[in-house]
Fold this sequence. Notes:
Helix content is 68%, strand content 4%. It has two domains: 3-387, Na+/H+ antiporter like fold (Up-down Bundle), CATH 1.20.1530.20; 398-542, NAD(P)-binding Rossmann-like Domain (Rossmann fold). The chain is mainly alpha-helical. A six-stranded parallel sheet has the order 3-2-1-4-5-6, sandwiched between helices. It has helices spanning 3-23, 28-39, 50-70, 74-78, 82-105, 110-119, 125-134, 141-165, 175-208, 212-232, 237-248, 254-279, 282-285, 289-313, 318-325, 333-344, 350-372, 374-381, 394-397, 418-429, 441-449, 462-465, 483-496, 509-517, 526-542, 544-548, and strands at 411-414, 434-438, 454-456, 475-478, 501-505, 522-524. Helix 3 crosses helix 10 and helix 6 runs antiparallel to helix 16.
Amino acid sequence: xxxxxxxxxxxxxxxxxxxxxxxxxxxxxxxxxxxxxxxxxxxxxxxxxxxxxxxxxxxxxxxxxxxxxxxxxxxxxxxxxxxxxxxxxxxxxxxxxxxxxxxxxxxxxxxxxxxxxxxxxxxxxxxxxxxxxxxxxxxxxxxxxxxxxxxxxxxxxxxxxxxxxxxxxxxxxxxxxxxxxxxxxxxxxxxxxxxxxxxxxxxxxxxxxxxxxxxxxxxxxxxxxxxxxxxxxxxxxxxxxxxxxxxxxxxxxxxxxxxxxxxxxxxxxxxxxxxxxxxxxxxxxxxxxxxxxxxxxxxxxxxxxxxxxxxxxxxxxxxxxxxxxxxxxxxxxxxxxxxxxxxxxxxxxxxxxxxxxxxxxxxxxxxxxxxxxxxxxxxxxxxxxxxxxxxxxxxxxxxxxxxxxxxxxxxxxxxxxxxxxxxxxxxxxxxxxxxxxxxxxxxxxxxxxxxxxxxxxxxxxxxxxxxxxxxxxxxxxxxxxxxxxxxxxxxxxxxxxxxxxxxxxxxxxxxxxxxxxxxxxxxxxxxxxxxxxxxxxxxxxxxxxxxxx
Length: 549
């Protein structure tokens, strides 16, 4: 079979496996690794063009790190909140220390324990952002906090790669020598990068941006070029690619570059995971199953617990800590890239890669469902999570002390995102007494400053509804984003014996049907209604005679 035919067959198999993965609501990363295993020598033996696949895999890793750096502009780095910084660093420290000790107890060597322990700390930014976006929770309080400490992790993985690559060929070197060598190289790289970002890159990127195709080629060339330079300078390809992306992150063209490179990244990473699956040595994996189970439980349970403990100490409620904590209950594609780099440097053997891959498969698969069903999972576990909430959760209670001024509202709206907030303001401008309810303290404070009566709290808890003036309300409207939250809210209203009308906002027909089947009396479809209104408006503009008739 020619290399071209082999590539074609791998792409066809990957497309089929990816479709099955999406159907099972799993990230396609898992499907690609499975394709590599099935196509590799352990099963079908279809992969023979190892050099070509390995080259594409290396370019894919460079593009991945380039895009990570591209998203970390200086504005965001300066505004990483204290909770994101504390949670991110705390989780990193706990996972590295606890994982290192646990791996040593499992009989592994010191260097392998160090690599795998560091690999266990990284969560997949791509997967988490995709899941939160699908659930429309990216702008929620726990979503913003999660994205914040994912940024901390992204920075940490690059620093870890730089530190470990500094040990290249210097196993005998003193730790002080390694630190000094790494420090002066980082300082030199920072100075060069600053000069490029300050005086050269803005004009260069502007010139390239005159053509979208040229901008794309320049971005790939810049990313792979600095990746090669980073490897030559004694860092790593990954660190060089990250710095290439970071150098363009403050330009006006980063969104355009990101949009065009995202598909290329996913395509090239396909070959990285296929190559990974094809190279797994199943003769050594048998002995890694028990360690993989132990480490998977450590990641699935330990990482969320430390995040909940830190956030609880910092004054957040157990619900916010729980939902944010679930986002670190898996390891990422960076973990596998990091361990693979250790093998290429000669620090560890292939057994560490097999162990890390098994942990990745287990934790990514299970944590995906944990995040998708986070709200019903919280409802079941809430009675056990009281120890993760201070008696006075001051960060979220601060907004509760400023009570709402709508003592007798006619309409109560739960969920004050883009749709709910605009609905509340428009109703208030129409002279209707409105009370808004939201679980995001920042959103509550923002809307109160705009003159809207807002109460902070969770509408899914029946006890919380007792605090609200619902007796005067003629309507209660829920704009909560997912079916599970709305069902919990509906049950809470039934327990409260609310006698007014209730309306639920549905994202689509499937969402609305689930609410109807659960007994929701009124379901609103904003997207469908907006389209219907737009069509009527255009018909009136294009054929005014039909309107007049």
